[in-house]
């Protein structure tokens, strides 16, 4: 009678996959854990709301020497934005400042600016799998604002967590276009 099974599994880690010998019991524990633990691997960007995108970009360029990697208008989100790349990471993404000027007053950023003035609007964490991680977070009782991820900067896929469920921080989860292609 077989009483024990040992399996080699590849465990995704922060520095790539690593092989691990596990018994059936630890495999079960591991799978339960993987279903509930997210793999947010980096800060993708910090979103900063501003009244005048060009003037704010000029400040970041002149003061810190940061360079604009990308600009676009996202009509669905109601923003004109500039992404200033701060550094690259090994998981297919980079870290950015996202400068956001509203294209309409009733947009999320437009409403926030009218109430608070300029400043940090949200923080965004990067992951290889925004679908799985946002579902795992939803399962923990945090309000995920979209049923399915939507279009974000540079072809990324994004969703948001309600700030009231995140100790006052509007939180975005991002899978960059390059990470989506790898997946
Ligand atoms: N950070 C922290 N708290 C915030 C917030 C933010 N950015 N935005 C709103 N809130 C708080 C408000 O202060 C308010 O709190 P009180 O009730 O205590 O006053 C509460 O949330 C409700 O705010 P509201 O002004 O009534 O705004 P709405 O409920 O209509 O919208 C939210 C809030 C988070 C649902 C909306 O901003 C949203 O859908 N955000 C996600 C989309 C987004 O932000 N897009 C722009 C960025 C695009 C990108 O990153 O690419
Ligand atoms: Co953002």
- Ends: how far apart? 40 Å
Class computed from helices, strands and strand pairing = alpha+beta
Q: What is the ordering of alpha helices and beta strands?
A: EEHEHEEEHEHEEEH
In quaternary terms, these chains amount to: single chain
The tally of structural domains comes to: 2
Q: Into which percent range does the helicity of residues fall?
A: 25-40%
Bound molecules: carboxymethyldethia coenzyme *A, cobalt (II) ion
Order of strands across the main sheet = 4-5-6-3-7-10-9-8
User: What is the count of helical runs?
Assistant: 5
Uncertain stretches: none
Largest sheet: 8 strands, mixed
Name of the CATH class of the largest domain: Alpha Beta
The 3D shape can be described as globular
Strand content: 35-45%
CATH topology of the largest domain: 2,3-Dihydroxybiphenyl 1,2-Dioxygenase, domain 1
The CATH architecture category of the largest domain equals Roll
What does this structure look like?
The chain is α+β, with helices and mostly antiparallel strands and 183 residues long. It has five helices and ten strands. The protein has two domains: 6-36, no CATH class; 40-182, 2,3-Dihydroxybiphenyl 1,2-Dioxygenase, domain 1 (Roll), CATH 3.10.180. It has helices at residues 24-36, 53-64, 108-116, 130-139, 177-182; strands spanning 6-13, 16-23, 40-49, 67-74, 79-88, 94-102, 119-127, 150-151, 157-161, 171-175. The strands form two sheets. It has an eight-stranded mixed beta sheet. It is globular, with a radius of gyration of 19 Å. The model has no long low-confidence stretch (mean pLDDT 85). Carboxymethyldethia coenzyme *A binds next to β6, α3 and β7.
């Amino acid at each position: 009678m077989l009483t024990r099974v040992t399996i080699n599994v590849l465990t995704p880690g922060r520095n790539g996959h690593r092989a691990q010998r596990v018994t059936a019991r630890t495999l079960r524990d591991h799978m339960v854990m993987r279903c509930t633990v997210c793999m947010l691997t980096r800060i993708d960007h910090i979103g900063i709301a501003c009244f005048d995108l060009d003037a704010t970009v000029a400040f970041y360029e002149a003061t810190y020497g940061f360079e604009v990697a990308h600009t676009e208008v996202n009509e669905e989100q109601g923003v004109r934005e500039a992404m200033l790349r701060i550094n690259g990471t090994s998981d297919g993404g980079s870290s950015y400042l996202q400068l956001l000027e509203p294209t309409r007053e009733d947009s999320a950023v437009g409403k926030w600016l009218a109430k608070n003035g300029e400043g940090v609007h949200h923080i965004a964490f990067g992951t290889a799998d925004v679908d799985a991680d946002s579902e795992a977070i939803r399962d923990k009782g945090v309000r995920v604002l979209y049923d399915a991820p939507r279009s974000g900067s540079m072809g990324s896929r994004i969703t948001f967590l309600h700030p009231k469920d995140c100790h006052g921080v509007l939180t975005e989860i991002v899978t960059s276009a390059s990470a989506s292609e790898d997946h």
